[in-house]
Specification:
With about 110 residues, the protein is an alpha+beta fold. It contains 5 helices and 5 strands, in the order ββαβααααββ. Strands 1-2-3-5-4 form a 5-stranded mixed sheet.
Amino acid sequence: MKKSESDDCFVAGTAEELLDALKLKADYILITKYYKREFLDKTELPLPEMGFFSGTRMAASAGGSPVFLFLNWLEKNDKQQRKIDSKVQKYMLKEHGEDLLLYLRQLTY
């Protein structure tokens, strides 16, 4: 994981780097085009895109977190991916050229 030139954004090119940035609760995380496909394929949450939420995502943010955590625990994903899925709930997703930009939802208020 490395900081970009603006020092505001962490750049993640692997699952380990993404998890490190999520643990630090970085305001902005740029997922490189090289890791983008793997991230989208493995992440089982319906991610918010372009400023709106899907029903499952909204339910999780409106008090459904214990239910999500229980379902996440039951899934067969590896431990690292479960941690990513759990922590990425706090972020919004936006296309940024060929990359993806994750930014904390609280920054939109």
